[in-house]
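We were asked to recover a plausible sequence for a given structure. The inputs and outputs are reproduced exactly as logged, with field labels preserved.

PROBLEM: sequence recovery
POSITIONS: 638
GIVEN STRUCTURE:
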C-alpha cells in the first residue's frame, strides 16, 4: 500500500474509522505521516441518538489523532447499524461533511471487514465481534447480508452470545444446577460477587458490550480444557457456520468463506469448530476492518469503489470547496499523472529492499523467487471470478464468437504469446483468439511503451478488428489504468461484446463497467514498478489458465489430453499415436492406422477406435456431440 498520495502537489489526507459496539479504531494518513488511535465504541446508527453517537465518536477519534479543528479530504467509516438504520445515513453523511471531511464514505462494519479480509475479492466474510453478521458478494457485485439483527433478535454465535452462555453457566454452577466451576471463578474475578451481577447488567447503558466482554474468559476456560466452555464455543461456531452458509447460498454456493472480526482472535477454540461445522476450508483474513476502511477511502479518492461491494457503500461529497482547498472528487484522471500512478500498489516500494544492490547475487535471486511464490496464492484467491469469466467466454465462442486480448507492453506481449500458441495446441482457427497489442505486431520485438497512452488507438484497434456482440475482449493492464486498454474495453462494451478486465491493483479503473473484473493484487515488486516481474508472472499464469479452461469447456481436451492438437511434425505425430494408445488402450499399429484414416486428427481417431467406427461416422458424431469426445461416445452408447 502506497503511503505517498498527492494531488496537485498537496498531500491527500485519508481518515479510516472502524466503529464497533465494543470499541473504535482510527487511522489517519497523509503523505508519509500515519497516526492511529483507539476509542470507545457506540451502540450504533440504529440507536435513537445514533447520528449523534457516531459523529461524537468520530470527533473524539480525530481529537486523539491531533486533528481537532482540521478537516480531512476523505473519511471512510465502517459502522455498526449501517444496514439497520438506512434512513439515517443521509443525516449522518451531512453532519460528517459539515464537521470532518470533504468526502464521506459510509458502510457497515461488515463491509469494511469484508474488504480488509478478502482485499475486495468475491467471497463470504463472517464478521464476529460483539455482534455477528455475514456478507457474501460475487464478482458482479451481487450481495447478501445475513444476521446482524442485534443481541435481542439475532447475532447468533457473537461475542454477546458466547458471553451470555458463559455467564449462565457461571450462575448455574453458583446455584448448584450444573454449569461450570471454572466459569463461575472467572465471572467472580471479573464482576465481583455474582449476586449483584443481574442488577449490574440491567443498570448498564449498553448491556451487550458488558456481557460480550466475558467471551475472553470463556475462551481462556476452553483453552484450559473446561468442557462447558468448549461446548459454548462449539455452539457459537455452529451458529456462525449457519450464517455463513445462508449468505453464501443466497449468492453463490462456491464462494470461499473467511471468519474475521475480534471474536476470531480467540483462535482455535472458535476457528477449528467453525471450519468443521462449515465443512470447508476457511480463509484467514488478509487484513483488518480498519485496513478495509482505508482501502475504501483510497478508492473513492482514486475514482470509484470496487464493484464487488459498491452496492454496500454510500459516498457523499461536498459540492463546493473553499478557495485553495483540495478537490476530493477528481475527474477521471489522466493515467500519466505521476501522483495518481504513484498511489498504486504495483508502484509501491518495498522498504526492506533499500539495500538490494548491495546484497550478493544469491540473496537477490532468493528475493526475486520468494516474491514470485506469492503469485499463485493471489491467483487462487480469484478462482470464482475467473471461473465465471471462463464460462461466459466459452458460451460466446461456442456461439461463433471470437476472443481478443488487449494489452500494452508486457501484457500485450504475453497476450500475443498465449493467442499464438492456441492453434497448434488445440487446433483452433487462427482468428478464434487474437492479440491486439498496443503499437501493433512490431511492438512484440521492439518495445513501444508510449503506445499505452494512446487511448483512441485502443478503441480504433477494437473497431478495426470488427468486434461485435458475439465476441469477447479481454483487457490486461497491471495498473488497471492504461488508456489503450480502457478505451478499447469501452469500445467493445459499446457494441455489446463481453468484456473482461485483468489488473494487478484493487479498485482498478479498468474494473468499472466491465462484465468480469479480475484483480490479482500482486503488490509492490522487488524492483519497484517493474511489473514484468510478479504482475507479469500473474498475467502469464492467468491467461494460460483462462484460455486453457475455455478450451476444456469447448471440448478441445479429453481428460488431460489435448486431442485437438495439430500433428504437424514427427514429434507431434509420435505424441498423437501415444495419446490414442493411452486413451483407447489399443496397440501402436491400430493407433497409427486410425490416425492415418482420420487425417491425423487425434480426436477423430480416438472416437473411431473406442466406438469401432469409420472416420466419417466419427466426424458426424463429434459434430452432433458438440465437438467433444465424451459427447460423441455418449451418442454411440445411446
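RECOVERED SEQUENCE:
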Amino acid at each position: 500500500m502506497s503511503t505517498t498520495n498527492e494531488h496537485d502537489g498537496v498531500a491527500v489526507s485519508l481518515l479510516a474509522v472502524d466503529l464497533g459496539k465494543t470499541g473504535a479504531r482510527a487511522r489517519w494518513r497523509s503523505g508519509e505521516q500515519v497516526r492511529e488511535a483507539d476509542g470507545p465504541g457506540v451502540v450504533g446508527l440504529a440507536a435513537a441518538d445514533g447520528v449523534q453517537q457516531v459523529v461524537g465518536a468520530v470527533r473524539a477519534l480525530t481529537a486523539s489523532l491531533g486533528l481537532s479543528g482540521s478537516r480531512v479530504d476523505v473519511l471512510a467509516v465502517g459502522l455498526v447499524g449501517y444496514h439497520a438504520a438506512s434512513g439515517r445515513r443521509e443525516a449522518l453523511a451531512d453532519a460528517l461533511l459539515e464537521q470532518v471531511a470533504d468526502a464521506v464514505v459510509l458502510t457497515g462494519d461488515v463491509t469494511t471487514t469484508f474488504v480488509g479480509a478478502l482485499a475486495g475479492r468475491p467471497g463470504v466474510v463472517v464478521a464476529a465481534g460483539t455482534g455477528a453478521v455475514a456478507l457474501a458478494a460475487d464478482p458482479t457485485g451481487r450481495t447478501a447480508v445475513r444476521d446482524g439483527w442485534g443481541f435481542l433478535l439475532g447475532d447468533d454465535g457473537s461475542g454477546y452470545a458466547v458471553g451470555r452462555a458463559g455467564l449462565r453457566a457461571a450462575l448455574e454452577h453458583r446455584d448448584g444446577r450444573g454449569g461450570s466451576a471454572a466459569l463461575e471463578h472467572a465471572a467472580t474475578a471479573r464482576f465481583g460477587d455474582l449476586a449483584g451481577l443481574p442488577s449490574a447488567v440491567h443498570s448498564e447503558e449498553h448491556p451487550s458490550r458488558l456481557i460480550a466482554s466475558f467471551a475472553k474468559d470463556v475462551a481462556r476456560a476452553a483453552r484450559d480444557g473446561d468442557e462447558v466452555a468448549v461446548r459454548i464455543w462449539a455452539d457459537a461456531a455452529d451458529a456462525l457456520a449457519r450464517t455463513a452458509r445462508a449468505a453464501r447460498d443466497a449468492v453463490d454456493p462456491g464462494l470461499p468463506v473467511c471468519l474475521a472480526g475480534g471474536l476470531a482472535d480467540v483462535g482455535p477454540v472458535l476457528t477449528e469448530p467453525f471450519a468443521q461445522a462449515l465443512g470447508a476450508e476457511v480463509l484467514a483474513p488478509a487484513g483488518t476492518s480498519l485496513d478495509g476502511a482505508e482501502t475504501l477511502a483510497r478508492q473513492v479518492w482514486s475514482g470509484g469503489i470496487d464493484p464487488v461491494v459498491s452496492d454496500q457503500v454510500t459516498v457523499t461529497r461536498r459540492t463546493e470547496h473553499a478557495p485553495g482547498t483540495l478537490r476530493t472528487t477528481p475527474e477521471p484522471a489522466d493515467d500519466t499523472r505521476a501522483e495518481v500512478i504513484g498511489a498504486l500498489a504495483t508502484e509501491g516500494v518495498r522498504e526492506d529492499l533499500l539495500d538490494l544492490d548491495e546484497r550478493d547475487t544469491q540473496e537477490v535471486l532468493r528475493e526475486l523467487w520468494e516474491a514470485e511464490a506469492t503469485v499463485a496464492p493471489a491467483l487462487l484467491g480469484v478462482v470464482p471470478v475467473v471461473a465465471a469469466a471462463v464460462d461466459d467466454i466459452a458460451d460466446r465462442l461456442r456461439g461463433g464468437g471470437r476472443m481478443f486480448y488487449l494489452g500494452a507492453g508486457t501484457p500485450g506481449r504475453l497476450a500475443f504469446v498465449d493467442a499464438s500458441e492456441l492453434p497448434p495446441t488445440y487446433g483452433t482457427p487462427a482468428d478464434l483468439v487474437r492479440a491486439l497489442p498496443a503499437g501493433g505486431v512490431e511492438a512484440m520485438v521492439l518495445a513501444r511503451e508510449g503506445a499505452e497512452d494512446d487511448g483512441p488507438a485502443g478503441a480504433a484497434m477494437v473497431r478495426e478488428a470488427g468486434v461485435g456482440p458475439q465476441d469477447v475482449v479481454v483487457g490486461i493492464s497491471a495498473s488497471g489504468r492504461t488508456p489503450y486498454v480502457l478505451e478499447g474495453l469501452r469500445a467493445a462494451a459499446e457494441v455489446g461484446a463481453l468484456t473482461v478486465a485483468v489488473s494487478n491493483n484493487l479498485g482498478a479503473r479498468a474494473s468499472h463497467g466491465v462484465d468480469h473484473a479480475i484483480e490479482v493484487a500482486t503488490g509492490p515488486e522487488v524492483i519497484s514498478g517493474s511489473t514484468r516481474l510478479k504482475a507479469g508472472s500473474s498475467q502469464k499464469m492467468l491467461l494460460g489458465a483462462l484460455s486453457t479452461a475455455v478450451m476444456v469447456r469447448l471440448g478441445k481436451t479429453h481428460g488431460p489430453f489435448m486431442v485437438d492438437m495439430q500433428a504437424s511434425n514427427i514429434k507431434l505425430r509420435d505424441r498423437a499415436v501415444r495419446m490414442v494408445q493411452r486413451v483407447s488402450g489399443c496397440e501402436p499399429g491400430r493407433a497409427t492406422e486410425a490416425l492415418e484414416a482420420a487425417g491425423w486428427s487425434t480426436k477423430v481417431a480416438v472416437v473411431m477406435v473406442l466406438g469401432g467406427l469409420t472416420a466419417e461416422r466419427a466426424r458426424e458424431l463429434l459434430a452432433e456431440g458438440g465437438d467433444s469426445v465424451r459427447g460423441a461416445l455418449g451418442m454411440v452408447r445411446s
